[in-house]
Hints:
Blueprint: H1 12-27, E1 40-45, H2 51-62, E2 66-70, H3 83-93, E3 96-100, H4 104-113, E4 118-122, H5 128-141, E5 149-153, H6 158-170, E6 173-177, H7 186-199, E7 202-206, E8 217-220, H8 232-239, H9 246-252, E9 256-259, H10 271-274, H11 281-300
Helix pairs in contact: 1-5, 1-11, 2-11, 3-4, 5-6, 5-11, 6-7
Amino acid sequence: xxxxxxxxxxxxxxxxxxxxxxxxxxxxxxxxxxxxxxxxxxxxxxxxxxxxxxxxxxxxxxxxxxxxxxxxxxxxxxxxxxxxxxxxxxxxxxxxxxxxxxxxxxxxxxxxxxxxxxxxxxxxxxxxxxxxxxxxxxxxxxxxxxxxxxxxxxxxxxxxxxxxxxxxxxxxxxxxxxxxxxxxxxxxxxxxxxxxxxxxxxxxxxxxxxxxxxxxxxxxxxxxxxxxxxxxxxxxxxxxxxxxxxxxxxxxxxxxxxxxxxxxxxxxxxxxxxxxxxxxxxxxxxxxxxxxxxxxxxxxx
Length: 301
């Protein structure tokens, strides 16, 4: 690993090794409290964040490193000065770059020009850190992820893309259920299907909830992405049938509910499900830090 730009760039061994290391760091944090001693990580954020910023900042500190946070008050990436200059200048001082951007092109530009590792903390196409945390969470519930059946309901987005890649590489079965016109990116689907075929996984896409079949976990996300100005009435007309509720969880026999947060109760999922016994949302949120720490240790340790 030179960077973490997308889960699709990982081999199965690399992905499994990251999950195993994340578990070790989570179980024995004292063993890694100097893993980044003397290292500095610059965090570039174009978009607001709670979990990503806090989990990286505190995680880096727990590893003995130092983080520097830069938001758009310092100039949007590529506008005040070229992305290449951001990358080369920061590489003079820092040991790694974490970037949360609007466009994957910005992430790719940083990786191209930086002489230090770049970690994609979210872009329009991918959310690899969330995906790693999600599969870490599932690996804590299931001994063999290749046997897991995971369903995603809602808008096909960057989270969906990372989940599809991860499930495919790990050999799991993933069912993606979206309203017509809201499926994941076509190229990403083709890439995920190829990875699934290589590793013995399976990817199913449908608009019909009744085609889901039995599932171990059901995952959803907000119906309106950050910055989307579509009216709630228009969104609900399309997405209301895909709400995760008790009836749906019972229908597919799923024991676990997953969400990358923020969650809007009684919208994409009912409060009964979001806050219920089978909800893994806080475990996922905590595991953001452990999964990211595994990436940092792998890249810099």
